[in-house]
Amino acid sequence: MTRVRASKAWVINGALVVLLAGAGFGIYQAFSPAPSSAQAQSRSTPVRRATVTETVSAAGTLASSYTGAANFATAGKVTSIDVKVGDVVSAGQKLATVDGTQAAKQLQVAKANLAVAQDSLDTAETAENTPATGPNAQNAQTSAANSVTSAQAKLDQAQLDVQTAQQALDNTVLYAPGAGTVTAINGAVGQQSSSGSSASSQTSSSQGGQGSANSSAAASSSSSSGSGFITITNMTGLIVNTSVAEIDVSKVKAGQKATVTLNALPDKPVQATVSSVNLTPTTSGSVVSYGAQLALTSPPDGLRPGQSASVVITVAEADNALSVPAAAVQTAGGTNLVTVQENGQNVTRPVQVGLRGESTVQITSGLTEGENVVLTGTATGTTGGTGRTGGTGGFPGTGGTGGFPGGGQRGTGTGAGGGFGGRG
């Protein structure tokens, strides 16, 4: 009986030892670092003919091609406002008036003085044309000539006074300095309006000639900002203002095609054309950029100045070009390299590249159509995390922090491998 109990105790103790050993091994495995076993991953793809497009990306903002700030050129009490916010007006259209009573009286007086001056000149000319007789005839003739000269000067001044008075009366009416939509009215009937020049900001060369169409409209000067009694904005001729990095500005030229994606309408990209690129830079800190303007081809309804957008400008394009994924091209010491499958072996080969697109690269020499190029990378055995692709067009790994470094875009991976790099 005692022997049976001892045997059972040995069995139980043995089982406990096995369990404890298993638990210890599990704890060791859980807390010990995983071995850094690198494994190569690869896939191949044939060299194909395709269209390779090189683009430049930037952020942009919608703006009006024309904004006019209309101000009265003479001070006075506002007697009428003939438009309201939202009205579409044409250049030279009447917008508002100030009290012109005093200006009208001044014009009346000036015209009366002009008539007197004209009569005086007529009288002086008649005296000059009448022959003088007697011993003082010469002096009389000279005096008559002087009277004509004086009368002519007074007539000239009276004519200038009439023109000035007429202009003052005309300035009591405010005209639209350009075509567009009334977006603001900074005043009301009965208020006193101060005088000022009407300013306009015109940012598109295609809108040239939208100055004042009426000779009596207020003077127009170029200005990038400033509020007026009435503000007019061209809501249909919208453009996109953007900034191009200094490294890309030499590639961007007027006439190039672009795609504008509005943040408010991400599913409706709008085609555009580069209309101009600034010659002088804008510097913010150590960042140098050049402003550029794009004209929208067929903008959708409902757009508003100030809306933000992303811009992709096509700066170069190669049709029917030999191309490979960007991730297949590696750069070492200024030499572009690809890995090609030859007779079941992976062989590194130097190549010449042309355009570098977002996902593909043009090959100008070193490869033939149909050859298989290899996209390879080394992934560590760690799990999770994100991988970086060294450029555009790389194919993702399955996680980790591996991948080829480069200067392009970032990619992410999940799982146990690293992302494969693209071009540097």
Question: If you had to describe this structure to a student in words, what would you say it looks like?
Answer:
The chain has three helices and 23 strands. With 424 residues, it is of the alpha+beta class. Among the domains are: 87 residues, Beta Barrel (Elongation Factor Tu (Ef-tu), domain 3); 93 residues, OB fold (Dihydrolipoamide Acetyltransferase, E2P) (Beta Barrel), CATH 2.40.50.100; 70 residues. The strands form three sheets. Strands 2-13-17-15-14-18 form a six-stranded antiparallel barrel. It has a six-stranded mixed β-sheet with strand order 5-8-12-3-10-11, with no helix packed on it. A hairpin with a 2-residue loop joins strand 19 and strand 20. It is elongated. The C terminus is likely disordered. Keywords: Coiled coil. Pfam families: Beta-barrel_YknX (PF25990), CzcB_C (PF25975). InterPro entries: Beta-barrel_YknX, CzcB_C, UPF0194_transport. This is RND family efflux transporter MFP subunit.
Topology:
Elements: H1 2-31, E1 39-46, E2 48-64, E3 66-70, E4 76-81, E5 88-89, E6 94-98, H2 101-129, H3 137-170, E7 173-175, E8 180-185, E9 192-193, E10 198-202, E11 220-222, E12 230-233, E13 238-245, E14 257-262, E15 265-277, E16 282-284, E17 287-296, E18 308-325, E19 330-332, E20 335-342, E21 345-356, E22 360-365, E23 372-379
